[in-house]
Write a structure and sequence with these properties.
Number of helices: 1
Number of strands: 7
Shape: globular
Strand content: over 45%
Radius of gyration: 18 Å
Structural class: mainly beta
Order of helices and strands: EHEEEEEE
Oligomer: single chain
Helix content: under 10%
Length: 173
């Protein structure tokens, strides 16, 4: 049975109910193959691509990349609250990466807001791996990605004050 589109905030289902899932059928637009070059700042290059091609809402099903430097969400410290989001970063160098994400548009500030997650391996440490939210990256050799435009509904990112102010994806106005 297909789920009905909803823009309402999630609520906890009662034990006798099916869970409510934020979902919406997507109308897809253009598909792009995008290649960033050695030395590019990942997020600057992604923003430049979106501006040049007027892409405001999209998903990135996958990308491969080499990064000379990368910051991802993480910590080596004990967490005061393991259920709360981690806002600190881990800095890594000389990594190979595989990732994906979404692009939501903030009409008020005329900005695309990427939400990208990556799995990275440290090349000189037996490809030891890390997986987390991407905060910053410098391209080393290449980044190759697919960007699939979403023409409707609008993809929006709203902060959830009931969930540590985490920005969550929403569909439509």
């Amino acid at each position: 049975m297909p789920t009905q589109p909803t823009t309402d905030p999630p609520r906890r289902p009662r034990p006798d109910e099916e869970p409510v899932i934020r979902s919406h059928e997507l109308t897809l637009g253009r598909s792009f193959g995008v290649a960033f070059d050695h030395g590019d700042d990942f997020f600057t290059a992604l923003t430049d691509f979106c501006t040049q091609h007027h892409v405001r809402h999209a998903y990135i099903p996958s990308f491969i990349a080499g990064f000379s430097e990368v910051d991802i969400v993480g910590t080596c410290e004990k967490l005061d609250n393991p259920e709360a989001p981690v806002w600190s970063k881990v800095h890594l160098t000389n990594v190979e990466a595989f990732g994906g994400g979404t692009l939501a548009y903030d009409e008020t500030n005329d900005q695309v807001h990427p939400h990208i997650h990556v799995a990275v391996g440290l090349k000189e440490h037996s490809a030891t791996g890390y997986t987390s939210h991407l905060l910053q990256a410098q391209v080393q050799f290449l980044t190759e990605m697919l960007v699939i435009e979403v023409t409707s509904p609008a993809l929006l990112r709203r902060r959830n004050p009931d969930l540590y102010d985490v920005p969550q994806l929403h569909f439509g106005q």
